[in-house]
Amino acid sequence: MIAAHGPTCWACGAPVDVERLDDHGYVRCCACGLRYYPSGEAPRERYDDSYFAEYRGGDYFATEILRRHEARVRLALVRGAAGSSARDLLEIGCAAGFFLDEARHAGWRVRGIEPADGPAEYARHRLGLDVVSAFAEDAEIESNSVDAACLWHTLEHIPRPGALLQHVRTGLRPGGALLVEVPNADSVLAHRLGGNWFALEPDVHVAQWTPNSLRTLLENCGYAVEIVSTVPFLTYVAGCGRRLPRRVWLALRQRAWLRNPHPSGHDLLRAVARRPDA
Asked: Which domains does the chain possess?
């Protein structure tokens, strides 16, 4: 089990020196490689409507077409992990519900949790989705109620996520699948660019996850980890978008890594884990 408080790593529980901070205020665990804010506090006031208007990938609502394309790519992953008989899906940090809406059209029974009032209202009233306005740490999840739970670029926003992930595990039915995706702080570009890495976002990312620290966290929360892998951002770019000059440049930078997906190769980190049957 992971200690909930004190100067210990959020992922592995190892002692850390909370006085040794890097330039962004993170402390690093020497045992598993996780970098995180020792205060353990999330900047909750940041998650208002302005967060989505200033979204890193562009105004969130103005890029709905791209979000829905991402959703369809992710749905294929979920179906493969959860199996063809799975029906109930939970998304934590669901924003305006575009992923949930695509999942519903694909036959899933869906529900979501979202802390920002504006997007949650949009999901409920414009899309007719079952979305609760709450921070994930505060939300109730009924035991044995879902076949798949997804955290797409959500975990890096959550301090001390062990308790939440254990709660999500009880919400999964035995054998149910958890899918997590976060920026890969151990990627080649993260190391090369340092403080200029575009996925760093220290104003809202309370932790910087690596393949080792993510696997360690999930195992310590009682999951059977099936895979921890890295993928390039190009995974979510539609074919025509890949011909844009910036995307071509990025493809050239990543062409060697696409052929050799070693643990530190790509900028996205993805894990699939399962609630054990017993």
From this structure: 44-274 (3.40.50.150)
